[in-house]
Amino acid sequence: MEELILELKNRILEALKLEDMTPEDIDSDAPLFKDGLGLDSIDALELMLLLEKNYGIKLKSPAEGKEIFKSVRTMAEYVAANRVK
Amino acid sequence: MAEEGRKWQGGTDGTSWMHRALIGMMKVVPLWLMYFFMHLAIPVYMVVNHKAYLANYHYFRKRHGYGPLKAFFHVWLNHVTFGGVIIDRFGAFAGKKFRVEVPEMPVYEELCSRQEGFLQVSSHIGSDEMAGYVLRAGKPINALVFGEEARTVTENRNKMLGPNNIKLIPISDDMSHLVALNNALADGEIVNIHGDRVFGSSKVVKVMILGAGADLPLGPFMLASMRNVPAIAVFVMRNGYHKYKALLYRLDEGLEGLDRNARAEKMAQEYAFRVDSVIRMYPDQWFNFYEFWND
Which of these, B143, B86, B70, lies nearest to B285 by C-alpha position? Predict the structure, then answer.
């Protein structure tokens, strides 16, 4: 799981062009939106695309987005359980 | 300028029972009589809703360069036209029929015939609602709507627009609307978003409309750019009693070789250009009743 978390952090930094940050700067359990990493709705779309392109995951129901994108750890757990590539 | 004056509340005035009564009444009362009563109510509305009046007055004074009297007259005309559009909306809920001309229908049909989905960018200009009754796509249209919109309006929209394959997606705090929009485009469906309101993300595109600076939301254009799908602007203009004309413009031409951000920016600029040209043709159908421009 820690390996996947690190991989996701790197992909997030790349997708969101957060060039002045490193994976160590992202707390695995901190909220991705608002108070934590401070991402917004456009960034949320980036994360959805990231899951789709890299892991073949399309979120099944609109309601589950909030839970999946709570933190990098919840994202990693979802990826581990649902990845098709 | 007070920031409060630059916010849009995003709902139709009146309570649910008022809307239901209006729809019930419109089943028996002819539209012309409703328009007549509406004319009587407009001066009262202009006084009561002073912020909207002022924003509209500034629009005619600063953007169109009208003198005080002419601007005042056009604010009244604008309110009358808006009232007509609202009456027509409830008339459509009550089953009244309207004639909508769509000169660019082949463009729309060609886009609909493709396997991929596309983005339809609408505006608070004219009556975007009428688009839902006339643009039959043959594939689902997912229309993003403001969550604050009155329940009766949403219920009736669902009832009337449902048979036309239109799904209403309310903006929510839990990002479920983003998942729904993203999935819709991934499934080859159509997504409709207003391009003239900044919401959700604070990321904006700086544009010039009628010679002055304004902000457009980056989100809708970025969505099309990220998914690499076509985008069109749709304006449905009121052209008289029972008559509308839909204007469609491709936003995604000349994007070859550009990166994702540049594509989104260019589509937003093209949309702004179209908004500019449409409101020059139909100045009285600008229905953003708040201080839209940055000055």
Answer: B86
Task: Using an 8 Å CB-CB cutoff, list chain A residues near B175.
Answer: 33, 41, 44, 65-66, 69
Contacts of B182 in chain A (CB under 8 A): 45, 48-49, 59
Q: Please give the backbone phi and psi of residue B209, each rounded to the nearest 5 degrees, phi first.
A: -130, 130
Q: Do A62 and B183 touch (CB under 8 A)?
A: yes
Long-range contacts of B255-260 (CB under 8 A, 24+ apart): B260/B222, B260/B225, B260/B226
Contact state of A52 with B186 under an 8 Å Cβ cutoff: yes
Tell whether A14 is within 8 A of chain B (Cβ): no
pLDDT tens, chain B, 295 aa long: 344 444 434 455 556 677 677 777 777 888 788 888 888 888 887 888 888 889 999 999 999 999 999 999 999 999 999 999 988 888 887 778 888 899 999 999 999 999 999 999 999 999 877 877 777 667 888 988 876 554 556 666 666 656 667 788 888 888 889 999 999 999 999 999 999 988 777 889 999 999 999 999 999 999 999 999 999 999 999 998 889 999 999 999 999 999 999 999 999 999 999 999 999 999 999 999 999 999 8
Minimal Cβ distance to A42: which of B174, B180, B218? B218
Of the candidates B96, B107, B106, B104, the residue with the CA atom closest to the CA atom of residue B129: B96
- CB–CB contact A52 B201 (8 Å): no
Q: Give the CA angle between residues B265, B266, B271 to the nearest 5°.
A: 100
Which residues in chain B are closer than 8 Å to A69, comparing Cβ atoms? Answer: 175
The pTM score is: 0.88
Please give the ipTM for the structure prediction. Answer: 0.88
